[in-house]
Design goal:
By secondary structure, the protein is mainly α. It has helices at residues 2-9, 15-43, 67-97, 99-103, 112-122, 132-148, 155-175, 181-202, and strands at 47-50, 53-56. Helix 7 (155-175) packs antiparallel against helix 8. The radius of gyration is 21 Å and the shape is flat.
Length: 203
């Protein structure tokens, strides 16, 4: 809708600039809202069995996959594919299409529209890690929406939190994907903090 309005309000020579701004803004909003919306969507599928019946955890007056909850589930599935799966897939496709340009950006100037639209995604990373921000999206989704599917402070939730945070920490320590050493250090310190937080909660 924003792109349709922009097409009619800006001069023809400014359309590509406007599109680049809209793509960048959409990507930034996606990263900001991704974990929170992921939790909301995943919580729709969270049910509890009581006397051989499944009840919606957020509202025990509703039985799962019936009446209102069925409608809510259908919308959750729709947004699951459009947003949780669709947005990272779209960003990966765009970055993958320009991966050669991104890898060679220090020797060959990259197209200005690619830089304007996706530069904030690959800019902080080494050229070979053009997909680095997508890994961060996956980690955030698993540590928020993924863990929210399990009972609060349950053994499986705590164990998965430890495993996910440890795996990501090992990845960051081994690959060191950022251009700046300080960014690598900060990322590793953050990973250590998250890992020990999950470990302490489990004790």
């Amino acid at each position: 809708l924003a792109w349709w309005i922009a097409q009619r309000r800006v001069a023809p020579e400014q359309k590509k600039v406007m599109k680049s701004r809209l793509v960048k803004t959409t990507a930034l909003l996606t990263f900001l809202m991704y974990p929170g919306l992921g939790v909301k969507i995943f919580n729709v599928f969270k049910c509890m069995e009581i006397e051989d019946e499944l009840y919606f955890v957020a509202d025990f007056s509703q039985r799962c996959f019936r009446d209102k909850h069925l409608t809510l589930t259908l919308f959750a599935v729709l947004f699951l594919f459009l947003y949780i799966v669709g947005m990272p897939a779209m960003l990966w496709r765009r970055l993958y299409r320009h991966r050669v340009e991104i890898k060679q950006r220090f020797t060959t100037p990259i197209h200005p529209h690619v830089e304007a639209r996706f530069g904030h995604l690959y800019g902080p990373y080494e050229p070979t890690f053009w997909y680095g921000e997508l890994i961060e999206m996956g980690k955030k989704l698993l540590l928020t929406a993924g863990l929210s599917m399990f009972a609060q402070d349950s053994v499986i939730q705590l164990l998965l939190g430890i495993l996910i945070s440890f795996a990501h920490l090992m990845y960051m320590m081994k690959k060191q994907p950022f251009l700046e050493n300080l960014d690598d250090l900060l990322s590793q310190c953050s990973g250590i903090q998250i890992f020990f937080f999950h470990l302490a909660v489990s004790l």
